[in-house]
Amino acid sequence: MFVGIDAGTSLVKAAAFDRAGRELAVEARPVGLELRGGAVEQDAEEVYGAVVAVLGALTARVPEPVELAGLTGQGDGVWLVDAAGRPVRPAISWMDGRAHELVDQWLADGTVEAVFRRTGSAMFPGCPGPLLAWLDRHEPKALDAAAAAVACKDLVFQRLTGAGRAVTDVSDASMPFLDPRTRSYDNGVVELLGLTHRRGLLPGIGDPIATGAASGAGLPAGTPLANGPYDLPACALGAGVTAPGDGLLIVGTCLASLVATTALDLGGEPAGLYISTDRPGHWLRAMPAMVGTAALDWVLRLTGAGHRDLDDLLGASPPGAHGVRVLPYFAPSGERAPFVEPGLRAELLGVSLESAPADLVRATCEGIGYAARHCLEAAGLTGSLAVCGGGTRSPAWTGLLADVLGRPLRVVEGEVGARGAVLAAAGRYGVPLDTAAWTGPARVIEPDPGRAASYAKRYEEHLELLAAARRRAARC
Question: What SUPFAM superfamilies does the record tag this protein with (predicted)?
Fold first, then answer.
């Protein structure tokens, strides 16, 4: 069997597949997030322990020999480790907002734009550049104690293999220090961020991804293991999004829009990033909006409902939600795609005593759909669109997204990130797999022409409301 490991933000999963790509079993463990005053941290040992636990449970359930394993996980943030891959402080999540004042300063003085023109990465508070600069100012002893500043999956890879040094892949290195043309770190960007004296913390890059043998923790000793890509490009691989112009929408905690491209355009408004892939000259133009299902989770809790109620709630409110609108920018660090605005916050509009909980839920789902359309248009979508993630478990919401986006959706089910991690590992080790069979959609959802036309008009109104909200955020 083939094993894919996905160390996500709130859930760690391991999935087993047979050679034809059929999903045999999945094991999952939740992991915690600590939120306080804009800071979002995780216990790295808890995350690693969850990886070992799900692997042990999975291999016990499916006692077939493990031919190959691939690893993926959440990107961005900063996971400071010592030479053995053990954390020297709690991991800082990609959702963290403590560096927002620094990003505001860099937006004002042109640093954000200068970095984007060099690397195609528009920094946001939760990415490694601002976080390392913040730590250098406020917790220099933590950086002094660290051997490397890695991403989540890199810590896991080092521990699972017993590797003597930290290593990452070209996808996780893409934000914000990687030159996408040379596929190596741009020391000019390191200097722009005032981090030249911390340059040694950047891990080595296994181009395209690093490989090693498992040392026996969770996986049988000697199992070939590949590190990377991180969860967004891994999902693109798992959904079969590799042809230029084709796109993927991940409706997860993060609302991520990805479009495959062979064109590198470092002009325009700095936003999103270009993710380097396993093929030189091929990138994913990524617009990962900060909040996807997390916004819906908040609204469902507010209304006393749960995910099981979502389809019924969407059916109880018509398109347009009786005039209720939601600008779904709930992240404490603002927004990063398709624009960078650390001060932007969510807004609920058109609510009255006549509004029902169903209206608020539908308006939130519609608002997330508008944000996705904005990101996909900015990323240059011209081809087919695949969709995956927890949000697609709701047939009503998936149909709503097809209507808002005005295009057919190729729904890819199961553990798409873990599937992509296996395909990346197979490519690195030269194991032939039928990619088409591994990445075929479960179904295709067509938009309703009438509702799509109505939503197209409301989308233009959404952009007007968003422009006004951004002006207010910029003044604060």
Answer: Actin-like ATPase domain
